[in-house]
Fold this protein.
Amino acid sequence: MPNCPECTAREKKKIQVKYEEETPEEERGREDLFKLFDEIDIPMKMDEKNRRHFICKRCGLYATREEISDIRFKLNQKERTRDDKHDDYLEWWSKSKKEKVEN
Ligand SMILES: [Zn+2]
């Protein structure tokens, strides 16, 4: 099962903050951080009724595998550019969340 891209991104941020608090700057390494990132395990659950879709029990994200890669890509991009909060992704996300609640 794919990991939830939303929760993974949040978890990564937490891990990074903790790592930077606990590790002096000269001892920090990207490899160490990536190793910690690899341990993140937040698998989504397959929707029994619609097997192309996955759902995250933590945040309620509901998406196909393609959408999941898309979200992951956009989140990674956002991480790099540090865009402001009013981007397409967030609009799409709040929309999909709303649809989810209504269903
Ligand atoms: Zn999630």
Remarks:
- The two ends are 23 Å apart (CA to CA).
- The CA atoms of residues 23 and 29 lie 9 Å apart.
- Residues 5-102 form one domain.
- The chain has four helices and three strands.
